[in-house]
Each structure stands twice: as C-alpha cells, then as structure tokens.
Amino acid sequence: MDDSSSQKVKKVLAPMVRVGTLPMRLLALEYGADLVYSEEIIDRNFLDCYIHNNEKYSIKEWISNKTQLCFFSTCNQERDHLIVQLGTSNGNCAWKAAEKIIPFCRGIDVNMGCPLLYSTKGGMGSALLKTPEIASDIIKTLRRNLPNEYSVTAKIRLFPVLQDTIDFVHMLANSGVDAVAIHARQVHERAKDKANWSQLAQIASHVVNVPLLGNGDIFSLQDMQRMKDQTGISQWMIARMAQWNVSVFQGTLDCINNVILRYAKLAEETNTYYGLAKYCIQQMIKYQKWTRTEFASKVSISK
Ligand SMILES: Cc1cc2nc3c(=O)[nH]c(=O)nc-3n(C[C@H](O)[C@H](O)[C@H](O)COP(=O)(O)O)c2cc1C
Fold first, then answer.
1. Domain residue spans in the chain?
2. ipTM for the predicted complex
3. If you count Cβ atoms within 10 Å of the first and of the last residue's Cβ in the chain, which end, N or C, has fewer?
4. Domain 3-302 belongs to what topology?
5. Mean pLDDT for each consecutive 10-residue tract of the chain (303 residues)?
C-alpha cells in the first residue's frame, strides 16, 4: 500500500475469523471492495504446512501437516487485493509465515488488536500494544525481508490515553509500516460500545506520515462519508455490516437473498467447508430478520 496505490484504496473488508474466507472475500470484491483482509491466521500454521494446487477448483490450499486440514485458501482473482492477516508475537516466525504466502497476496497485516485470550496469552493480538519493542521488531523484520511491492500493515485498537495511541502509531510508522488500521475501540470494549470516532479524528490530525484506515461502526455509504467528515479519514474498513450484507461495499444494499445465493455459489466453487459456509449464511439470515424487526434501532443505538 504505497502512497500512490493507497490513494485508490477506499473500502476494505475487515479481517474476520470464520467469516473472511475465500468466498466472502470474492463476493466483497464483486460488490466493490478495493482490498480484502483474510481472517487472522496464526503464524505457526504456515510453518508446518504444504500448499496444495487444487486444479479442480483453480485454488491453492494451505494444508496443515499435522491435521491434513485446509486452514487457508486463495485464488488468482483476489491476488492483487488480498492482505493476509497474521497472528504473531515474533518477527522471525512472522517472516517465515509470510514467505509461504507472499507470492499469492498483496501484503501482510499484523493483528495487534485481538482481545481474546487465545491470542493474548501467546503475546499476540492486543498483547502487542503492551510490548511495543516486539511490535516494532515484527514490522521491521517483515519490511526488511518483504519485497517493496508487498505492503506491511498493522491493525490496532485505541489505548486508554489518546497520546499513547498516537505514539504507538508513530512507532509503527518509524518501523516501516505502510498503513495502520485503527479499530476505534479500546481492548476491553465490545461491539455494543460505540466506536470512538472523535479519537480517530485526533489521531488523524497528529499522524501525517502514514495512511490510516478507520474501523468501527460503519454500516453504510453514508457512514463512510460521515467518518470522512468527522475524522478526515477516507479509507474505511468494514466488518460486521459486511458479515451481514456484504453488498454494503456497492453503496445500495442488494436484496439479502441475492447475496446468500451468490455466496453459496462461490462457496461451492471454492471448495469451502460446508459448516463454515452454513455459519456465514446464518449470520446473513439473522440480519434479514433484524431488518424486519429491531436492526434499525440496534444500529442507531450504537451510533
Ligand atoms: C466475526 C468477527 C471476526 C473477527 N475476526 C477478526 C480477526 O480475525 N482479526 C482482527 O483484527 N479483527 C477481527 N474482528 C474485528 C473486526 O475486524 C473489526 O475490527 C470490528 O468488528 C469493528 O468493526 P465493525 O464495527 O465494522 O464491526 C472480527 C470481528 C467479527 C465480527
């Protein structure tokens, strides 16, 4: 994501475990997303795997040596738009993992925001916000080793004190990061808590040397414009709304039945595990029920 290409990147599919697999990413691109992040993948998975060229589906599959299960897949259509998000707590492991994936993506992102124990207990995710020297080493190691055409990015959350977030972003910029996605919530906050766009605005006014992606409570094209007006940030990362109706990227929402049908077709065409596809479709159906009942009020509460 160098300066010239980052200008073109506007709408981004956020990383989402279980949801952001190949069919969802392809559908997000069809509906107008500029970049798609993979679900977080823990670096050690890439260290003990082989790549299977699945000719029947025209996809590549990363298969664990231990379990013989596929933990990641991709295809040519998304090559120039795909950012693979790593869960990592070590620069060398991150680089070894990145080596297994870089021919097939556009960049590597480091998850520095996940609050869940499975991530933080290994020093990954939001634990990196407390270990800036390790976070810096991961970014420096990736930037030093990756060819320039691949971006190195990070996704973080807000610190309790604004200045600490600003300092952390500056530290990442000095370590060579190409862009930082900021989920505008603190580590202890959950989706029901309102995203703090006023902090995003203050961060954006202090950080001028690295592109920022704004994330949190974007549910529509109007929200993207509102975030731009309120914060100055014009690169937007969307998670839950994409999970519910990924046509959010085109502006006007497509009928959810069309979205579900197309998703199911893409899942079939990409050899996606049935249980995973079923889970994603259930999330879309849930949204459809909400739109009929209380979704509108839920969203307005969170704003
Ligand atoms: C189902 C789900 C899975 C998620 N998985 C990840 C993940 O793998 N990596 C990550 O950095 N954030 C993850 N997140 C957080 C989102 O990327 C995003 O930061 C958060 O949901 C706020 O954006 P939103 O208000 O648009 O939902 C996940 C969120 C959801 C809803």
1. 3-302
2. 0.99
3. C
4. TIM Barrel (3.20.20)
5. 55 98 98 98 97 98 97 98 98 98 96 95 97 98 98 98 98 98 98 97 96 97 96 97 97 93 98 97 87 54 41
